[in-house]
Every structure is written in C-alpha cells, then in structure tokens.
UniProtKB/TrEMBL annotation:
Pfam families given in the database record: ADH_N, ADH_zinc_N
Cofactor: Zn(2+)
Keyword Oxidoreductase attributed: yes
Alphabetical list of CDD domains matching this protein: CAD1
Limits of the Alcohol dehydrogenase-like N-terminal domain: 82-198
Family of the protein in this entry: Belongs to the zinc-containing alcohol dehydrogenase family.
Gene3D superfamilies given in the database record: Medium-chain alcohol dehydrogenases, catalytic domain, NAD(P)-binding Rossmann-like Domain
Keywords for the protein's UniProt record, in alphabetical order: Metal-binding, Oxidoreductase, Zinc
Keyword Repeat: no
Ranges for domain Alcohol dehydrogenase-like C-terminal: 239-362
Protein known as: Enoyl reductase (ER) domain-containing protein
C-alpha cells in the first residue's frame, strides 16, 4: 500500500538480524525460536519455577503460527504482596497483537495470550500496595516487569530498562511466561498499573494504554505538549495515528495526515480535526508539502521507505518512528543529510508517563474512536485490522453479557 518514490529510495538497507529488531534483552534472545516441540519443556520448567500459579483463567490464545485465536484456559500466579488482581472489562486490539499472533518478528512463544490495552476493576490488593483499593478503575499497558535497579527504572523510565518484560510474551520475575488481557482477569505488579480518571469511559480508554502512550511519549520528548503552533505530521491513520491527530490538535498544532487511504480524508478532517491530508502515493502532493513539517510520527505497520517522509520535514526536523514493521524500513541518506534531519525511535511509555497521559486525556476529554467486538469475533477483527478496515480501534468486550469468558 505504501508506495515509496523510487528516486528517493537511494539506499536500501540490507536485512537485519532478528536481534536488531524490536526487542533485544538477553531473555528475549532465549525466546527467539518458539518451536512447538519446546513447549512441553517450557511448561515443565514453568511448573518447577512457578508453584504458586494456581489460579485458572479463561481467555483467548494463539497456539501456533496459524495465527488464529482460540478459547484457552491457563494459569496465573496467586495475588502476591506487591500485586493487584484485575477483573478485566475491556481490552484493545493493537496491531502488535497481530504481529505476535503471526510471529512476524520471530519471537513469539506459543501459546500467546495477547492484549496490552487493558482496563478493569481491582478485586484483590497485596499487603505492600498502598496506591490502590478494591473497586478502583485501573489500566495495564505494555509493561509487566523491569529490573527496578537500573538508572532507567530509578528515574521512571523503566520502559527503557534492558530487562523489560512485556505484559504478554514476556518472562516475569518468577520465570513464568506472561499472558495478556484477552482473558477474564489478570494479576499485575502494582508498579505497572495506572488509575483511570473518573470522566473517561473504560471501553474507549483501553487503547490509550498502548496506542495513546506510544504517540504521547514522542510528543512529550519533542516538547510538543505545552508549546503550541508547530506543524506536525502523522503517517498512517490507524489506532496509533488517529490518537496522534487528537493529541496534536489538543496541544494546539497544525496537523497533517499522511495516508495511503484517500477515503480517510473526510473523517480525518471533519471528525478528528486534521488541518491537511496528503495521500502518500501521490508524488505531486508530497512534492508540494516538502520542508513544511517540524515533527512527524510514523505509525505505519508495514514495510515502507522513510525517504519520502523525511522530505516533508523542515531542516532540523524530527521523525519519531514508533511503528514496528517486520521488515527493515528503507532509509535513503540524502533526505537525512540535506535537511539535517533526525530520526528517533520510541518504545511505549513508562508507568508514570502513562498516568500523566491519562490525566491529560481526562483534561482534554480525549478517548479513542472504537468499535466494540465480542470475544467470539476476535479473529474477524484481526482480519479486518490486517485489511486496514477499522475506525480506529477494535476493543474486546471482555466482561459484557456477550462474552463467553
Ligand atoms: P493500525 O491500526 O493497523 O494502523 C496502521 C496504519 O498504517 C493503517 O491504518 C494504515 O494507515 C497504515 N498501513 C497499514 N498497512 C499499510 C501498508 N501495507 N502500507 C502502508 N501503510 C499501511 O496499527 P497500530 O495499532 O496503530 O500500530 C502501528 C504500528 O505501531 C505497528 O507496527 C505496531 O506494532 C507498532 N506499535 C509500536 C509501539 C511502540 O512501543 N513503539 C506500540 C504500539 C504499536 P493509512 O490507511 O492511513 O495509510
Ligand atoms: Zn500495542
């Protein structure tokens, strides 16, 4: 769908090793060959290391590289002193769930229970936890554990801890594999749990826990939250992208959407408030917008060239890459060097930053545009997401009457 301008694609990067892609902790290296034959060994190891995983949970999992979600029963740990147990109400469907389900990055440990855009109600509180009480409305995003000791952990930037473990497909401190929010309840360490502000609905807030914080964080890094009047670009109008547009407008910027989908223009302008819309397959439109944007966030889930995007930036402009296609993206040198432009990555956000983002959303009344789906329709929603047929986030109704969990 992305159509790079070939004359600008001067330098195609050679293929990376898997280890240079999305995640790179030692533990993840151990997990790069998730063969079915290893599962029984893995289960035995888990059985040895996690005797307190006594709670049976129903959920949905992908069991193998078929990429299909099926009903699945599994175990979670008992609620520890630092834990809270959360009755899950809603879970957003992130494109990352699709990448993991289909083993796009070669690091999936089947069975995988996806879901890291979770909202729910606290039903148990560990004795060390002062921050939360029974009945609190809370959320869990991408993070399940980190080392707690490094500079990043100590300065509330634990999302960059070298030992970071994710809400699903991670390895928790007790050696168990983490399972995500496509399930009835979860046990989470309170240090990775946030409070949902009272004025935000639980369903349309769920995707803020990943999609929201992932685009908020680069806005903050580039000092765009409190200094209005910049020209901001958003590439890819999906789950992350539509929230980036909402943040950009709420923070007082001129927002341009760069999209492969001309049919999204009306909505982008009228519903989301975008000021301009560029069809990225239209060379004339790209040319007309050269050197106009101060900052761009790239959310495109598939392989594409960064060259045409960089050309849209002013001299010294910044491109924040948050997307994680399974193939290396093309990075021609000329648009970088002629415009003295910078590219920076960004990996979700820390727990405190996520709380800050939710409070900002509460103030500006920002939530996601969602389509609620039943648990039985997860595969259909995934197929539609893969076909770019969603406005703009599917959210699974985990606790509703139609749920079979
Ligand atoms: P999404 O809802 O599917 O949106 C992606 C958008 O990319 C689509 O709406 C579409 O926008 C564009 N697109 C899709 N396929 C394309 C293709 N073949 N060529 C060109 N454009 C295409 O996905 P998402 O949930 O927002 O996630 C986006 C990416 O961010 C994923 O790779 C995900 O894994 C990653 N992610 C990273 C982090 C992080 O921490 N860095 C966190 C969450 C997600 P248009 O129709 O407008 O072109
Ligand atoms: Zn996500």
């Amino acid at each position: 769908m992305w159509s790079p301008c070939s004359s600008q694609s001067l330098n195609r990067l050679s293929s990376h090793d898997r280890e240079s892609s999305f995640f790179s902790t030692d533990l993840l290296f151990l997990r790069t060959e998730p063969q079915v034959s290893e599962q029984s060994l893995e289960s035995q190891l888990m059985a040895q290391t996690t005797p307190n995983h006594t709670q049976t949970v129903s959920g949905w999992a992908v069991l193998n590289s078929s990429g299909k979600a099926v009903p699945h029963t599994f175990k979670r740990r008992e609620n520890g002193v630092d834990d809270v147990t959360i009755e899950i109400m809603y879970c957003g469907i992130c494109h990352t769930d699709l990448h993991f389900a289909r083993n796009d990055w070669g690091i999936t440990m089947y069975p995988v229970v996806p879901g890291h855009e979770i909202t729910g109600i606290i039903t148990k509180v560990g004795s060390n936890v002062n921050k939360f009480r029974l009945g609190d409305r809370v959320g869990v995003g991408c993070l399940a554990a980190s080392c707690l000791e490094c500079d990043f952990c100590k300065s509330s930037r634990e999302n960059y801890c070298d030992q970071i473990q994710l809400t699903y497909n991670g390895i928790f401190w007790d050696g168990s594999i983490t399972y995500g929010g496509y399930s009835k309840f979860m046990v989470a360490d309170h240090r990775y749990v946030v409070r949902i502000p009272e004025n935000l609905p639980m369903d349309a807030t769920a995707p803020l826990l990943c999609a929201g914080i992932t685009v908020f964080s680069p806005f903050k890094d580039s000092n765009l939250v409190d200094s209005p009047g910049k020209k901001v670009g958003v590439v890819g109008l999906g789950g992350l992208g539509h929230l980036a547009v909402k943040f950009g407008k709420a923070f007082g910027h001129h927002v341009t959407v760069i999209s492969t989908s001309p049919f999204k223009e009306k909505e982008a302008r009228e519903r989301l408030g975008a000021d301009a819309f560029i069809v990225s397959t239209n060379a004339r439109e790209l040319q007309a917008a050269r050197r106009t944007l101060d900052f761009i966030v790239d959310t495109v889930s598939a392989k594409h060239s960064l060259g045409p995007i960089l050309e849209l930036l002013t001299v010294n402009g910044t491109l924040a890459v948050v997307c994680a296609p399974d193939q290396p993206m093309e990075l021609p040198a000329f648009p970088l060097i002629f415009g003295k432009r910078s590219i920076r990555g960004s990996m979700t956000g820390s727990t405190s930053e996520t709380q800050e983002m939710l409070d900002v959303c509460s103030k500006h009344n920002i939530t996601c545009d969602i389509e609620l789906v039943k648990t039985d329709n997860i595969n259909e929603a995934w197929d539609r997401l893969a076909r770019n047929d969603v406005r703009y986030r599917f959210v699974i109704d985990i606790a509703g009457k139609s749920s079979n969990l």
